[in-house]
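step: validate -> pass
step: tokenize input -> pass
step: predict -> running
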Amino acid sequence: MKITDVRIRKVAKEGKMKAVVSITIDGEFVVHDIKVIEGEKGMFIAMPSRRASDGEYRDIAHPISSATRDCIQTTILEKYQEILEEPAE
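step: predict -> pass
step: emit ->
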């Protein structure tokens, strides 16, 4: 699996959520609404989710293995860091 595109939309309002991301996998499959969140131990991603009838949130799409999650998270957070370092227009 190769992440072939990462599109980041920074969130303007204050809070823990810093950006919303879409990734393209192998130029064939897109996952929208991945969130970049600032937690107590640093930045992490949250996969797209929906509230179930019991009030709990359940992921709509998610990686099966922790290695795949790490790959996706690392790629997204590196790209997010790049856009933070770009000069303001």
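step: describe -> Residues 18 and 85 are 14 Å apart (CA to CA).
step: cleanup -> pass
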